[in-house]
Write a structure and sequence with these properties.
This protein is about 45% helix and about 15% strand. The chain has about 550 residues and is an alpha/beta fold. A hairpin with a 3-residue loop joins strand 10 and strand 11.
């Protein structure tokens, strides 16, 4: 039984209560130990009594308080506090402290990144700056401080200042901004004068004050006099758009005028497109495309096609074609191994700056991953699938089960010719159902037996690669349901499935809405949207994740 008293609770009667209890064993949890020290709280005599009763005690204490209580030479304050400190000193000398660092280990970050909770994945994104625990613990409190400030005797001007900075970040400009810019912008957010806004200097002091030992609502930038919103605030606003409203046009315009770098322009374009603000997406991506970025040109071609401006779309497709990097040939360094045994990642290409692009087909300690590669004809879907399969094969810890549902039956010819494919099925419905049924039976066996979360040469994982899976799903609802079961249960049993599709419409999933939702909305599944249609698929995926909304600009 765990007993977790509130701060200041009298603990002296605890031994007697434990002796008369029929429950047990007991664990005493004291969060913020300093709040329990004293003659009526935890002291050496009570500690001895609890130890004799076999009570396990776990307590927490912040670093600076630990140093205060552990240092007997620390300056005295008042008699009561000094007595508490003396007791704390005696207790701390009797224990071996376990120090928990601010920043999580690489393995902890890897496990957290696979979580489906957006708050945790957002925290991981910023874990190089803030500890994950700091972000999660301080973030909600800082958010509440901001939201509750718009009231009489509150800080309505400070709240408007923070709102301006938050909306700049939501628009994609994540850098710090000169305080003079924020001063000008914040006036557009000021509430009714009846709230009696505080002075500008008071607003700045309130917004930049460090709270909870972690951060202010605004955090300083690299250069003096520049500030940006604490990351949790725009992250939360993006997750809860109904509570925070749309990003105003003047913020999009200001973001574009702030001389953002290429990364900012890319984010702004993507954010604007997802919000249905195509004019700002065009303004963000045009300078990138004109400087030779074929990906931006491809996105512009997609936007103008949606708008019905086919001449402009043709122009941007031509610009895209001039970018040697932006082609269906995936750049891979043949001298580098495709599979990383430590991370479970496969190299599928490289970015413009030469960084290797990797996807995890296995998360150590969590199981294998599933994926979908979607895009139109001749955009490189099969190349990407082949790299995934070759990476898995090169590890020595996977076997390949492959299906080719294309009319030409050509996708797996190179692999089939090498004899490395354990099971191959062409476009035959009965054979496909037999393969998927066998995979489900293996999952059931392995889950009962255990020990298949991490693939090994002795207990290899199975990766099922299905080319043009939409043809299978439209011929067999049974096959679609079997794939859904594999997606649900295969990860911990070492059975993975990868699909190629032309798009993510319901038709491509054989009309099976549950299968589509599982593929698209599960953050544990890898999704790669390719070609000109990739932009709209990314938007559609977000719509599927959020569900239908009367506020959706695309409905």
């Amino acid at each position: 039984m765990i007993y977790a008293p509130s701060r200041g609770t009298t603990l002296s009667a605890l031994p007697q209560a434990i002796r008369s209890s029929s429950h047990g064993p007991f664990l005493l949890w004291l969060d913020d130990l300093e709040g329990f020290l004293g003659k009526d709280g935890l002291n050496p005599s009570l500690l001895d009594s609890l130890k004799r009763l076999g009570v396990a005690i776990v307590a927490t204490m912040q670093d600076h308080l630990f140093e205060t209580y552990a240092n007997i030479q620390a300056p005295e304050t008042n008699a009561e506090h000094d007595a508490s400190r003396q007791i704390g000193n005696r207790l701390l000398r009797a224990v071996e402290p376990i120090r928990i660092g601010r920043l999580w280990s690489a393995n902890e970050i890897a496990r957290a990144s696979a979580a489906s909770d957006e708050r945790l994945t957002d925290a991981v994104t910023h874990s190089a700056v803030y500890g994950v625990s700091e972000y999660l613990a301080a973030g909600p409190a800082l958010l509440q401080s901001w939201l509750s400030a718009q009231r009489v005797n509150g800080n309505p001007r400070g709240a408007a200042l923070v709102q301006a900075s938050v909306d700049l970040a939501r628009a994609g400009f994540r850098g710090a901004v000169d305080i003079d810019v924020l001063e000008e912008l914040h006036t557009r957010y000021l509430p009714d004068p009846s709230l009696r806004p505080e002075t500008w200097s008071e607003a700045v002091a309130w917004a930049t004050k460090v709270r909870y030992g972690v951060s202010g609502l605004l955090v300083p930038g690299e250069y003096e006099g520049t500030w940006r919103a604490f990351d949790y605030l725009p992250d939360s606003a993006s997750r809860n758009k109904k509570d925070h409203g749309e990003i105003p046009d003047f913020i999009w315009e200001e973001s574009l005028h702030l001389c953002p770098d290429d990364d900012d322009l890319w984010r702004m374009g993507m954010g604007a497109y997802m919000e249905g603000r195509s004019q700002f997406a065009i303004a963000a991506w045009e300078p990138l495309a004109e400087s030779g970025n074929g990906s931006a040109a491809s996105n512009l071609a997609a936007i103008f096609s949606e708008m019905g401006d086919h001449e402009a779309a043709r122009y941007w497709r031509y610009i895209e074609s001039q970018d040697d990097f932006h082609s269906v040939t995936i750049p891979v360094d043949p001298s580098a191994p495709l599979y990383d045994n430590k991370s479970g990642e496969v190299t599928v290409g490289q970015s413009r700056d030469g960084e290797r692009l990797r996807i995890a087909i296995h998360k150590p300690g969590l199981g294998v991953r599933h994926g979908v590669i979607a895009g139109g004809k001749a955009v490189g879907k099969s190349n990407s699938m082949t790299l995934v399969l070759l990476g898995a094969l090169s590890s020595g810890k996977y076997v390949l089960w492959l299906m080719d549902w294309s009319p030409e039956q050509k996708h797996y010819e190179p692999l089939k010719g090498t004899g490395v494919v354990d099971w191959f099925v062409g476009n035959n419905t009965d054979s496909a159902v037999n393969m998927l049924s066998a995979a489900v039976r293996i999952i059931e066996f392995r889950k009962g037996k255990g020990g298949y979360i991490d693939p090994t040469a002795e207990k290899p994982a199975i990766v099922i690669g299905i080319e043009e899976a939409h043809r299978l799903f439209n011929q067999s609802s049974e096959a679609a349901m079997l794939c859904l079961q594999i997606l649900h249960d295969g990860a911990s049993a070492g059975v993975s499935i990868f699909l190629t599709l032309p798009d993510i419409t319901l038709e491509s999933f054989g009309g099976n809405a549950e299968l589509r939702a599982e593929v698209i909305t599960n953050d544990g599944h890898w999704k790669f949207f390719m070609g000109e249609g990739g932009l709209s698929m990314l938007r559609d995926a977000k719509r599927i994740e959020k569900g239908p909304s009367i506020d959706d600009p695309f409905d």
